[in-house]
Amino acid sequence: MSSLPPAEGAAEPDHVETVHALLRQRAEQEPDRIALDIAGGGTLTFRRWEERSNAAARALLAREVRRGSRVALLFSEQDWIDYAVAYLGVLKAGGTGVHLSDGLPADELRRRWTETGAEGLVHSTGLTAPAGFDGWLLPAAELAGDTSPVAVPTGPDDLADILYTSGTTGPAKAYTNPHSTLMHGRRPAGLRRLDGSAPLLAPMPMGTPSSAMSASLMPLNSPSTVVLCPPDDVGAMGRLIARYGVATVLATPWIAQRMVAERLAERYDLSSVTTVAIASAALPASTARALRGMMPGLAINTAYAQGEAVPAVILGSFDPDRPLALGRPAPGTELRIADPEGGAVPDGEIGEIWLRSAAAKRRYVDESLNALLRTGGWIRTRDLGRVGEDGDLYLFDRMADAVRIGGRLVSTLEVEGVLYDHPAVREAAVFGVPGPDGDPALVAALVLDAPPGAEAGVPAFLRDRLKPRQMLSAVQVVDALPRGVTGKVLKHRLRERLPVLHDRYEPRRAGTPS
Fold it and tell me: Which superfamily does CATH assign the domain made up of 403-509 to?
């Protein structure tokens, strides 16, 4: 049956209980080792991180931050060192970091600090504080001072973070993250899969769960110096790989696609890269093959999880011949493929992916979501999948994205995978809308690497590769797909743009979706 227990070897002693205690330990063991190296923005050793975060904690205590206080963190994309210092300072003062992105619209920022109850805001010195915030404001430049240790009692059950989901199917949801969840296992299995102690490149967007990890457990738990850069500058990634001899690149599928599209291997020496670690979304098989062509012998490791379910995670090695195979549960992770009532379905059948671990659970700030999406310690991912004959978990689609046509569910991911094999297609997003007869219809938004009119050849290309129910009813050519801060396609915006299909297959060209 499709319900798998944790893998053996899950038990692993925790040596420290909080993130800031782990920083103190690393500073004592390797004070002069570089923890973070910022592209164009300096370096931070464990010693200086420890000292500067002590000073930050004292500045926050002077603002009456106390155990359990919620403090918003708003930093620009290059200001990683001040962000890491402020974040650990908040934790040392007993507070909870609320991670915000300066790329969010003002109304979304307002919604988030209101929902989380942030009482203060620490921000980049050169960043203008957003209008409407009625708490105290503290620029990063004012976090300096006495670097002696602080002694605020904190424990594993205290909240380290409030983070937000990516918001691909609707408004982003806030969830809490206790220290015990972050420290569970102390060395996450995923980090063991990285390549030795050579530098690790992390092109991460600020103010996201990824940035929180990059400014805490990633450098604290890894033997590697973490090199950070903005995710939208692929050229900078190539320069940093060549300069530092980077062995491991953390990437989203969107970053990987742009590395291929911009022919990075023709411009920079990528020969040091042995591993690309992929998370966040499905990777097109064509992109994986192109990456291996650019970097022969490359291992592509995958991690499937959801922020709310971490540290439960599925780990695998990407196989272009099985592009939706995610792998198997990591040590300490349980997997269930559930029917609508929550029972385990037989292997091979499609159901909702549920994940569970023994770690303390992250919880939604909105309690109604906890009742809806949590059952007996299980996290309902809202993703559909199955366990194959080989024992691997296979992703089918997001529940919100799968389309029922002719009484059968159709995976938009499978159709997108075939579209990416078309030589003229650079980006593809498939989604369902009501057709002219009221039944669901599949449509695609495409970004082309070809002259106008190339989309006319798409139907014939698909006809030999897809089942009839998977065929597209319409194609819309756009300048770019709408994406969130992590690069995920926002299909709900595409549905808003094309709410109803009025004509059977009619290739159309349009501007960038809003």
Answer: ANL, C-terminal domain (3.30.300.30)
